[in-house]
Write a structure and sequence with these properties.
- It comes from Eutreptiella gymnastica.
- Pfam families: zf-C2H2_13.
- One of its GO terms (molecular function) is ubiquitin protein ligase activity.
- InterPro entries: Znf-C2H2_ZNF598/HEL2 (IPR056437), ZNF598/HEL2 (IPR044288), Znf_C2H2_type (IPR013087).
- This is C2H2-type domain-containing protein.
- The protein has three domains: about 55 residues, no CATH class; about 70 residues, no CATH class; about 70 residues, no CATH class.
- By secondary structure, it is an alpha+beta fold.
- The protein starts with 17 loop residues before the first strand and ends with a strand.
- The longest helix has 12 residues.
- It has a three-stranded mixed beta sheet, with no helix packed on it. A three-stranded antiparallel beta sheet has the order 9-8-10, sandwiched between helices. Strands 4-5 form a two-stranded antiparallel ribbon.
- It has ten helices and ten strands.
Length: about 240
C-alpha cells in the first residue's frame, strides 16, 4: 500500500486488485504456491464486500470487522504518548510540540521511509542527532540502519545514498577527465572549484582570447592541449598544469 504496488509478495505476479483477508494466514508459503480451490481469486472476491476508497483495498468482512479496524488503525495519527486522537500528521506534530516537548519525528523518514505513520519512530533531540549521524547509533533504530548520509558541501542530510547521489549529480560538479581515467564519484562544490582542479591537475588552456567554457578548454594530455592551441589560437599558446 505504501509503495503503491500490487505485486504478490510470494511470486511477484501483478494483481489487478488488492484483497485483504484472513483466509490464508495459517498457510505456509509452499502451500500458497499450490492449487487450493477455496483460496482462488474468484473464491475470495465474493467475500470482500467492503471497499476502502482511500487505499483501493477490497476487504474480507465475511467473518468479522477486524480487518477494517486494522486498516483504520494503520491510518490513525493518534499520539503514542497520551493517545490523543489527531486528524493527521500535521495535527500530531503540533500536539507533540505543545504537550510533549522535545519529541519529534525524523523529517527524512517521514518523507521517504515506506512505513505507516504509526510505525514511524519518535526521537528526543539527542536521539535524532544520533539517528542522523553516520558515526553514531541510536538504539531505537533497526540494526541495519547506519544514519542519513550528508552532502559534504551543503551540510544537508539525505534519506539514503541514492538520494545523496542524485543531489551530488544535480547540485555539484564532476571532472569528466578524472572519470575517464577511472576516478568516479569525486565531486567539486561548484564550477570555480572544478576549474581550480583543472588548472592544478590537468592541461588547461589559459590563452587570454580563449572563449571556450572551462569544461571545453581542459585536456587529458599535453598533446591534446597543444593541438587545441594550434587550431584555435595559432602558435604561442601557453599551457597550464600544476
Amino acid at each position: 500500500v505504501k509503495l503503491n504496488r500490487t505485486t504478490c509478495c510470494v511470486c511477484n505476479a501483478e494483481s489487478p486488485k488488492v484483497l485483504l483477508t484472513k483466509k490464508m494466514l495459517d498457510l505456509k508459503v509452499q502451500d500458497v504456491l499450490t492449487d487450493h480451490d477455496d483460496i482462488t481469486w474468484e473464491g475470495l472476491m465474493p467475500r470482500c464486500q467492503l471497499y476502502d476508497y482511500q487505499w483501493g483495498l477490497n476487504i474480507d468482512n465475511s467473518e468479522d470487522k477486524s480487518i477494517m479496524e486494522l486498516v483504520k488503525k494503520l491510518r490513525d495519527a493518534n499520539c503514542p504518548f497520551c493517545g490523543f486522537r489527531c486528524r493527521d500528521l500535521r495535527d500530531l506534530q503540533a500536539h507533540m510540540r505543545q504537550n510533549h516537548k522535545g519529541y519529534q519525528h525524523c523529517t527524512l523518514c517521514l518523507e521517504s521511509r515506506s512505513v505507516f505513520l504509526c510505525e514511524q519512530i519518535i526521537y528526543t533531540n539527542s536521539e535524532l542527532q544520533q539517528h542522523n549521524s553516520m558515526e553514531k547509533t541510536c538504539l531505537k533504530d533497526p540494526p541495519q540502519f547506519r544514519g542519513h548520509p550528508a552532502c559534504e558541501f551543503c551540510c544537508t542530510n539525505f534519506y539514503d545514498n541514492d538520494q545523496l547521489f542524485d543531489h551530488m549529480h544535480k547540485a555539484h560538479e564532476t571532472c569528466h577527465i578524472c572519470q575517464k581515467n577511472g576516478y568516479e564519484f569525486v565531486y567539486y562544490q561548484n564550477m570555480a572549484k572544478l576549474e581550480s582542479h583543472f588548472r592544478s591537475n590537468h592541461y588547461y588552456c589559459d590563452h587570454p582570447e580563449c572563449q571556450m567554457s572551462p569544461l571545453e578548454r581542459v585536456f587529458n594530455t599535453d598533446l591534446d592541449l597543444r593541438c587545441h592551441q594550434q587550431q584555435m589560437h595559432g602558435k604561442g599558446g601557453k599551457k597550464e598544469r600544476g
